Amino acid sequence: MTTEEVVAITAKHTYGTWRYQKGWKPLHVADAEGCYFIDGSGKKYLDFSSQLMCSSLGHKNRAVINAIEEQANKLSFAAPSFATTVRAELSKLLLEVLPAGLEKFYFSTSGTEANEAAIKIARMYTGKYKIISRYNSYHGSTAASISATGDPRRWAIEPAGKIDGVIFAPECNCYRCPLNHSYPDCGIACVEYIDHMIKNEGNVAAIIVEPIVGTNGILVPPDEYMPRLKEICFQNKVLLIADEVMSGWGRTGKWFAVDHWGVKPDILTTAKGITSAYAPLGLTATTMEIADYFNDHYFSHGHTYEAHPLTLAPAIAAINELRSKNLIERSLQMGEYLKVKLNSLKSKHPSIGDVRGRGLFWAIEIVKNQKTKEPFNSKEDKVSGVSLTVDRLAGELMKKGVYAAPWISHFVIAPPLIIEKEEIDFAVDAFDEVLAIADNEIIPN
Ligand SMILES: Cc1ncc(COP(=O)(O)O)c(C=O)c1O
Q1: Domain boundaries, the chain
Q2: Spatial distance between the Cα atoms of 142 and 128, rounded to a whole number of angstroms
């Protein structure tokens, strides 16, 4: 097939996700290696977002590919009711790398399913039904996880498709505080308000948070936030669900974002980097306290592809690669380099409102005016088909051979953990040139 045919058939006969279908001309990705992917014409792109913040080991990692091949030859599938060696081996490994106390696992095939399972487990275990989530969050695309999503992807399913009992708390965003406070004078009022919500709502089973918010802006909370949230949950007998679908597996410079603060969630969900996207795997990890409840109560959940061997084998290989190549520490070190480079961009470009992040997980937020923080586009723009400034800039970056994922008013910078300094320089130089376009469109003071 020619590239033209691939693109035409893909656009006509398959759905483009989270978009108007009209005008969709997907790039034909024909090949990929390391930190790069290559289009149908042979043009090479540096992947500065690890595809969807998931290809952490880069492409064509031999160890992971071999693990899939070996597992396919040995045992491609066994129903979830059977024990398999690969399931036991991965479970042993998870006990070594997950935050302490998370000891029983449910394997699915996406972050969405991991969160669906978490919410269902929390409700069954506590006997309560309300779930607190936060605005500026994304937790997945099906019933419970989209209902718990704070960003505009939720709007289309309301009211009929939304599950009962999900309520939203203010997010922790020190650049755009939803309570109009300033840190540290605020006394982290946003987390104290969650205590107030729980006490006044009653019937709260769990709160689900991305410890470092991903797509919605790489929002890193102050150091007190997560420990205080854990304390509030403990005092009110509410479960803490840490959604580490995007922030896990070294992305932020620790195995998991909660490790920055030593916080132990009751349930941790993850996907993406667990296999470095070589196979679709979701994980819901719970404490033994939660697990024990189901010894005498029906565990009412399951999927045909739960613990599918072809998804588990690459996870073992990917975790071993993260370990043997010291990629968690590398993420922290390279993150320091990236931080300096991004901050130098900020000092140069009046269209940059904020750069923030941890490890190799950063956002560049663009604004029309640094003082007023007026964004180039709104959430309404995102779902109403308006052409977004970030999308336009992302197109210009592609012309320069750099891919960076745009979202409403910022870019999500999350390169493979194997990225080299020269590659960071190359991408930042491309941003430097492209941001001049936004600089020309700012509203001066
Ligand atoms: C924090 C978070 N949770 C859940 C999901 C859903 O994961 P998936 O797309 O694998 O269903 C995502 C996806 O981007 C995510 O970033």
Answers
A1: 3-60+326-439, 62-324
A2: 21
